[in-house]
């Protein structure tokens, strides 16, 4: 059932459906093809969602993951990208890889990205040229009360494609060279940008009221799906899809990028929050000056850090 539609400029839109995405994807998209699918499904860790039981037996959960793979396969464009965010508890490090192997039965794993939510940087390791004057501890994590495990401070983003040969716009989320002599030394470095690599430090944005600002047990910041779309190539992206949209971080990213979006969720309350966030983002975008980098690209936004309710499973 169509829950809400938010109009974007240029006859584009954000469409939100309150229904199961597995049968809904081919039904609602029809002949349209998703250039980017970016999502974070439930991790089967017993999380208390409003409208979903997150505690299936392992084999049943992996079969369900296979059904998700097949549904995405029906709607993904031939040169599309499927970005799958998966995390797991320290006691079950194979869970994300079991999920990835199940999805790889129908796709090629082209890149493995690491979403870093917390990191420690020693002053000595940073070097004098970095300007770091003391040891740094950035971002936040959920502490693990155990003598056996270390804190989990990262999750995976598995980048799947149909054949493993999709070209990427690596400099769309590039970073300036730390050593500026590389700008002169390396061919193609004149814009003073290099590939960010497969580690993405994205802490949570600061929030004041959990019930209002993040009323969902598993969220990821909008910058994560935004970077995924930029990496795939904004100019080649006409439609973004999220089968588990939750409170709409991926929909907010699509609104920022001005690309059409289709999202699904079982819970109407989450979708109400998602639609509200998209409209608030559009209102902010209308007021925000359009700054550009020296390369002509919109600058990559960063976020502040806040302590998330859950450190291992986030959407």
Order of helices and strands: EEHEHEHEEHEEHEHHEHEH
Could you describe the largest sheet, including whether it forms a barrel? 9 strands, mixed
Radius of gyration: 19 Å
- Ends distance: 22 Å
CATH architecture annotation name:
3-Layer(aba) Sandwich
Tally of contiguous helical segments:
9
- By secondary-structure content and strand pairing, the structural class works out as alpha/beta
List how many beta strands DSSP finds: 11
Instruction: Please indicate the count of domains.
Output: 1
How confident overall, as mean pLDDT? 84
Can you tell me the CATH superfamily?
A: Vaccinia Virus protein VP39
Give the % helix: 25-40%
Parts with pLDDT < 50 across at least 5 consecutive residues? 293-297, 301-315
CATH topology: Rossmann fold
Beta strand %: 15-25%
CATH class equals: Alpha Beta
Shape: globular
Structure description:
With 315 residues, the chain is α/β, with parallel strands linked by helices. The protein has a single domain (2-287), classed as Vaccinia Virus protein VP39 (Rossmann fold, 3-Layer(aba) Sandwich). The protein is 28% helix and 21% strand. Strand 3 (34-39), helix 2 and strand 4 (76-86) form a beta-alpha-beta unit. It is globular and about 55 Å long. The protein starts with a strand and ends in a 28-residue tail after the last helix.
Protein topology:
Elements: E1 2-7, E2 13-18, H1 21-29, E3 34-39, H2 58-75, E4 76-86, H3 95-103, E5 108-116, E6 118-121, H4 123-126, E7 136-139, E8 154-161, H5 181-185, E9 199-201, H6 210-213, H7 223-232, E10 239-242, H8 249-257, E11 260-265, H9 268-287
Parallel strand pairs: 2-11, 3-4, 3-10, 5-9, 10-11
Antiparallel strand pairs: 1-2, 4-8, 5-8, 6-7
């Amino acid at each position: 059932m169509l829950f809400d539609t938010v109009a974007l400029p240029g006859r584009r839109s954000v469409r939100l459906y309150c229904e199961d995405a597995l049968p809904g994807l081919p039904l609602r998209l029809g002949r349209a093809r998703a250039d980017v699918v970016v999502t974070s499904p439930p991790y089967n860790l017993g999380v208390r969602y409003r409208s979903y039981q997150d505690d299936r037996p392992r084999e049943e959960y992996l079969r369900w993951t296979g059904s998700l793979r097949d549904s995405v396969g029906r709607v993904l464009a031939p040169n599309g990208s499927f970005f799958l965010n998966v995390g797991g508890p320290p006691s079950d490090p194979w869970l994300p890889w079991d999920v990835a192997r199940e999805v790889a039965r129908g796709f090629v794993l082209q890149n493995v990205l690491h979403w870093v939510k917390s990191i420690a940087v020693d002053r000595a390791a940073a070097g004098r040229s970095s300007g770091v004057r003391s040891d740094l501890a950035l971002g936040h994590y959920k502490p693990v009360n155990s003598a056996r495990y270390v804190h989990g401070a990262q999750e995976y983003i598995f980048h799947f494609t149909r054949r493993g040969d999709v070209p990427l716009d690596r400099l769309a989320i590039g970073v300036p060279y730390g050593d500026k002599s590389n700008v002169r030394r390396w061919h193609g470095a004149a814009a003073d940008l290099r590939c960010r690599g497969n580690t993405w430090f994205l802490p949570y944005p600061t929030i004041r009221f959990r019930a209002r600002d993040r009323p969902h047990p598993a969220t990821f910041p909008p910058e994560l799906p935004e970077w995924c779309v930029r990496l795939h190539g904004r100019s080649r992206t006409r439609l973004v899809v999220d089968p588990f949209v939750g409170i709409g971080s991926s929909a907010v990213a699509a609104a920022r990028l001005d690309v059409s979006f289709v999202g699904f969720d079982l819970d109407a309350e989450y979708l109400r929050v998602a639609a509200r966030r998209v409209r608030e983002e559009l209102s902010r975008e209308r007021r925000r000056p359009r700054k550009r980098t020296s390369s002509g690209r919109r600058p990559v936004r960063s976020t502040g850090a806040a302590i998330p309710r859950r450190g291992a499973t986030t959407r």
